[in-house]
Write a structure and sequence with these properties.
The complex is a heterodimer of chains A (about 325) and B (about 625). With about 325 residues, chain A is an all-alpha fold. Chain A is built from 13 helices and two strands, in the order αααααββαααααααα. A two-stranded antiparallel ribbon of chain A has the order 1-2. Classes of the chains: A mainly alpha (about 325), B alpha/beta (about 625).
């Protein structure tokens, strides 16, 4: 484990994440500093009592200069103190961590789903260029990237939950009954699928063109000349080479899946971070928004490091 | 103009254009259409179904006319989406131009900021902005525009950097123009097309995003509704009255799909690679389109080609790359095929096992016979099982022809595994044996190398080892020494020669170098414009070339590796094979040409396709 972290390439990427994380905190802080009017009252919103306002002023040093305020805020966060949600009356970090679990399950499943489906669709499409499979996939992909995910989710509820009664319409767990893996899968199936549709489309498109690019190259002809079966040519030779340009796309799409989760969580009443953020905004629970945004952004930055490292293992030509 | 006609030829893009045009037109006309007021509630008429009296699309939960709300909502959604795109494009372009034009530290600082913003999942930024400014359509617009600024800034900066170092910008700077004027008069006009294209590909996205924020209740506030908030309000009645959700949802789908179709069309029309059709994937085996089954070739050798014709069909043109070639090679024999690049020698070789890229390649006639097996038109399964096992290839430029991401040992083992099962340990042992057979030092370590870790000569040996993996009967070597320096070239050639003697291989050796032919080949065929112009024993042709073209080729390359690598020393160019002249294809460049050379078909007689061959006594021209 230690040797893995001390690998110079990974170390370099980890170090390079520090300024990005600092930058993110500055941006979030700056946006929040834009809030017009008295900051403490704006942050606490309608739930504020005079004691709360006084406590917050004390906490954030809102009477101090902005730069100093930033460092107090940053210092608190580094110590795991993201402030308190006055609407929920609990520490921001507790709420965020609890919600994060649900989002991770939803977005993670969707991400795996869209990666696998997207790549398979792209490869099949490219391997049968201009054939009926290619045309069908191209059409479905176009539909998939054009349909708003929240509308798709609603239509899925209507069809599969209300009319066909295959899946529960909302939530993460049954109200009664045991919270086992099957109950989770039952609740997860529709939102995870709805969330993965757009990203699947984008990944399928890019995989298709990456595959077409690779299939024309000389080493593909070599594989054929060796007598490699066409299945092997496509899935072993071409896809392996195309992965080098597909992996970065997956990294970008992870951000889109995370973003789309906000809508899907609202539509399917999934108890995740996205729904928490929307509720917090509508309640003007600013500290919760701030904490949630910084937390998710930090997770995303680390996810991207993982993608880069995966890339370096996939392509031996990148010096690690 | 050609751009528009290209777009028009793409029927899907045209359909998208028509649909989005109609929607925009209707949205513009909405205030003058005979619609009910969109925000007047009528609680006695709640949830009227579609096609009910006086409400074509029914009514919503407050009894408001859905058709009217749809039109006004569409108008609002389009306006907000376009406005967001415009704002993002303007600010993004401004930032990108400043960064790209000034360069240096300005550029560095700005682009770091842009990268930082791009490290966010976009919705977090949008939500943070809406959280700070408060819910509302204008704030949603600002948020959506803001998250898209980095995208534009990055694109436009790239273009600007390219332009900022062009001569006309330098000239403007020297003439004392101010930076502002240069940016406005020299830079801006050049980046505007890029801005427009970037906008056309993102506007659908922005419409979707603003609709999304409204859907969440963070955008337009009641009673005014865009498509997103219509959908959001209808959600609570999804189960009882689904049509109130379906109407705005389908509208968003139609708009975004039309814009996407149009955007794809624009991109395709602007992408030059797609225009030429170069992004076609080659099929597993070259297409065969022979109008008649030829008489089976007389099987003189182990591999016999007769009247082989391979063409490239590009657009409406037919390039006859191989125009009726007959050849034969016996076990243990080495046959050289020599000619300039474009003479059809490589295509001839690739046609044997159906490896000509197809499309555009088509085998249009003739026959190739391996032992008693006809290869042209053979089913893919037959062809595949012969490839590499009976007839193996060695290609030019092994850096491109070896898979870059697999270890060379694994690529060798795979070659074996294609034709017979072999265990891990056995495979590895065999791979090392093969590397030793092609005289790679330290083979047991080299077997784990990637191709990019080896030298050019080493890689070429890997290519040869791979061809030998299954002990084939025939090896077709397509210019395998071209990329190598002279010493390595000589080593590779002598290696091939040894292998031929030891294993009784038949070798077809394709080259443009007479020196190589002299060293290795028993017989040689000279190709020009897709046909064989002279054929015979190497010694005889080297001593007394009879076709004027052969004579000229030899004059160009005095000895092995020492002379011209390419044969440009012959004045003139080979004819384009889509438009061959009547008579002798070499006539344009021939010094011996006479009137009758340009008439009728010239046959290959006594090994030469020429009416006035160089005779014995004459010195080669
Ligand atoms: S046929 Fe005539 S033109 Fe052609 S090579 Fe012979 S002499 Fe030259």
């Amino acid at each position: 484990m230690l040797r893995f972290i001390l690998n110079p390439y990974i170390l370099k990427r980890l170090v390079s994440a520090v300024p990005v994380l600092l930058g993110i905190s500055v941006i979030v802080f700056a946006i929040m500093a834009l809030i017009p009017g008295d900051p403490a009252t704006a942050i606490l919103g309608s739930y504020a009592t005079p004691e709360n306002v006084a406590a917050l002023n004390e906490d954030l040093g809102l009477d101090k200069p902005l730069v100093q305020q930033y460092f107090i805020w940053l210092g608190n966060m580094l110590q795991g103190d993201f402030g308190r949600s006055f609407a929920l009356n609990r520490p921001v970090l507790d709420e965020v961590l609890e919600r994060f679990n649900a989002t991770l399950i939803l977005a993670g499943t969707s991400f795996v789903l869209c990666s696998i489906l997207g790549i398979i669709a792209g490869v099949v499409s490219a391997a049968n260029q201009y054939g009926w499979a290619d045309k069908a996939i191209t059409f479905v992909v176009l539909l998939g990237i054009s349909i708003p995910s929240f509308f798709l989710g609603m239509m899925m509820i209507l069809t599969f939950a209300v009319n066909l009664r295959w899946f529960p319409a909302s939530g993460m767990w049954p109200i009664y009954g045991s919270r086992d893996i099957w109950a989770l899968i039952d609740h997860l199936a529709m939102p995870a699928l709805a969330l993965s549709v757009v990203a699947t489309g984008v990944i399928a498109r890019l995989s298709r063109s990456a595959m077409l690019e690779v299939l024309r190259q000389d080493f593909i002809r070599t594989a054929r000349a060796k007598g490699v079966h066409e299945r092997g040519v496509v899935w072993r030779h071409a896809l392996r080479a195309a992965m080098v340009s597909i992996i970065p796309v997956l990294g970008v799409q992870a951000g889109f899946v995370l973003s789309g989760a906000v809508y899907i969580e609202v539509v399917f009443q999934w108890p995740g971070l996205g729904r928490m953020l929307v509720d917090a905004i509508l309640r003007r629970d600013i500290l919760l928004v701030q904490g949630g945004v910084v937390f998710v952004a930090a997770c995303y930055v680390f996810f991207n490091i993982v993608v880069d490292v995966a890339q370096s293992y996939l392509d031996p030509r990148i010096k690690t | 103009m050609s751009f528009l006609s290209l777009l028009a030829r793409n029927r899907l893009a045209l359909a998208g254009l028509i649909v989005i045009g109609l929607v925009v037109l209707l949205a513009l006309l909405t205030p003058w259409l005979p619609l009910k007021p969109p925000n007047v509630t009528d609680t006695s008429n709640r949830f009227q179904p579609i096609f009910s009296d006086g409400a074509l699309l029914g009514t919503d939960h407050l009894g408001r006319d859905l058709l009217s709300r749809l039109m006004w909502g569409t108008r609002l959604s389009l306006a907000v989406g376009f406005a967001a795109a415009l704002v993002a494009a303007t600010l993004g372009a401004a930032i990108g131009i400043v960064a790209g034009y000034y360069g240096g530290r300005t550029d560095n600082i700005i682009m770091r900021g842009v990268d930082m913003l791009m490290a966010f999942p976009y919705i977090l930024l949008a939500l943070a902005i809406v959280a700070a400014l408060g819910p509302g359509l204008l704030n949603a617009l600002i948020a959506v525009a803001a998250v898209n600024i980095p995208f534009f800034a990055r694109n436009i900066r790239g273009i600007t950097v390219g332009i900022a170092h062009k001569e006309f910008v330098d000239a403007a700077r020297l003439s004392g123009m101010s930076n502002t004027r240069i940016i406005l008069s020299e830079i801006l006009p050049n980046v505007i097309p890029v801005i427009v294209i970037a906008m056309s590909t993102t506007v659908g996205w922005m419409i979707l995003e603003t609709a999304g924020l409204s859907f969440l209740g963070l955008g337009s506030q009641p009673p005014v509704a865009d498509l997103g908030s219509m959908l959001g309000e209808a959600r609570s009645a999804l189960i009882t009255n689904p049509h109130t959700s379906v109407v705005p949802g389908v509208m968003i789908l139609i708009i975004v799909m039309a814009i996407n179709l149009l955007g794809d069309g624009v991109r395709d029309a602007l992408d030059p690679r797609l225009k030429s059709g170069a992004l076609n994937r080659p099929l597993p085996a070259t297409m065969v389109a022979r109008d008649h089954q030829p008489a089976p070739a007389q099987a003189e050798g182990i591999l016999t080609l007769s009247d082989l014709q391979t063409q490239f069909h590009v657009k409406n043109k037919v390039y006859r790359a191989v125009g009726g070639v007959s050849l034969s090679v016996k076990p243990g024999e080495c046959l050289g095929i020599i000619g300039e690049s474009g003479s059809g020698k490589s295509v001839t070789a690739l046609s044997v096992m159906g490896l000509v890229a197809s499309p555009p390649g088509v085998i249009a006639g003739g026959s190739v016979r391996y032992q008693d097996q006809e290869l042209i038109g053979a089913p893919y399964g037959t062809l595949r099982s012969l490839r590499g096992r009976e007839v193996a290839y060695i290609f030019q430029d092994p850096l491109a022809t070896l898979h870059p991401l697999y270890r060379v040992g694994d690529q060798l083992i795979e070659a074996i595994k294609c034709h017979r099962p072999i265990g891990r340990a056995d495979g590895r042992r065999k791979a090392i044996e093969l590397l030793e057979a092609v005289r790679i030092p330290n083979a047991s370590a080299r077997v784990d190398d990637y191709p990019h870790e080896m030298s050019g000569g080493m890689r070429q040996r890997i290519g040869i080892a791979m061809a030998l993996a299954n002990d084939p009967e025939v090896i077709i070597a397509d210019e395998p020494t071209t990329a190598l320096d002279v010493t390595v070239q000589a080593q590779v050639l002598s290696l091939l020669d040894d292998l031929r003697r030891e294993r009784g291989l038949a070798i077809v050796f394709i080259t443009h170098d007479f020196g190589v032919v002299a060293q290795l080949c028993d017989r040689v065929a000279v190709m020009y414009a897709g046909r064989i112009v002279e054929e015979g024993a190497t010694r005889a042709i080297l001593d007394a070339p009879r076709h004027p073209y052969t004579a000229r080729l030899m004059a160009c390359v005095p000895e092995l590796g020492g002379g011209k690598r390419r044969l440009e020393a012959i004045p003139g160019l080979p004819p384009v094979v889509s438009d061959l002249p009547e008579g002798c294809a070499f006539a344009e460049r021939c010094t011996r040409v006479r009137g009758d050379c340009r008439k009728g078909e010239i046959p290959l007689e006594n090994g030469v396709r020429c009416l006035h061959p160089v005779t014995y006594q004459e010195a080669p021209a």
